Amino acid sequence: MKLGIITAAWFAALISFNCWSTTILNAPPESVSVNDKFVFYSHGYIVEGVDPKPVNTKNGWGVYDFPAVKQALSDKSYTLIAHHRAKNTDPFAYAYELNKQVRELVEKGVSAKNITLIGFSRGAFISAVASDKLSDLEINTVILAGCGGLSSSKHSDIKVFGHVLSVYEQSDRAQSCAALDKRSTQTRSFNEIMINTGLEHGAFYRPMNEWVTPVKAWVKAHMGR
């Protein structure tokens, strides 16, 4: 399987900057419509706990602005669900909860094609595990700087399904998801984008246009497909 390359012009033609009337929730709503669309965002490990804006001083990546990232990823065309995980949350247990939440939405009539998982770093690992558990539904998945662990032999059994987008930073240790793409033989599409900000993992700590713009364009283009 070959990674698809997406051009900047394609994104420019699709992206909408009109984000008023957006909805951001901590969990899926009880009442839904069959036409509703949902995006789940899973944050990185550093945010686990009680502080929504923790600071990484060890690597110099600065503030992880979880509230700002949520706001930037929200859109009037879908409901964004972004739960603040507790400290030391087990990633596999949380992936199982994501799996349950998605299945409950589908049972209520929401199309699986209108559900997307987005995750950064630890959140990307969680999203990939959830995608693996949801192989029969083929929801869409976006992996942000998450293939450091997913590319290791320790987790070589994890596969993703449906339409998949990988975004990574050139200066980061977490690089291409080519290995994940190679073993995920039943995806509907697998595209990858490399950004170049020089900020390593910290590029995803804040809502930078370099990754937010293409991610939102891709999500909206693949909803319902």
From TrEMBL:
<dbReference type="Pfam" id="PF06259">
    <property type="entry name" value="Abhydrolase_8"/>
</dbReference>
<keyword id="KW-0732">Signal</keyword>
<dbReference type="InterPro" id="IPR029058">
    <property type="entry name" value="AB_hydrolase_fold"/>
</dbReference>
<dbReference type="InterPro" id="IPR010427">
    <property type="entry name" value="DUF1023"/>
</dbReference>
<feature type="domain" description="DUF1023">
    <location>
        <begin position="61"/>
        <end position="180"/>
    </location>
</feature>
<protein>
    <recommendedName>
        <fullName>DUF1023 domain-containing protein</fullName>
    </recommendedName>
</protein>
<feature type="signal peptide">
    <location>
        <begin position="1"/>
        <end position="21"/>
    </location>
</feature>
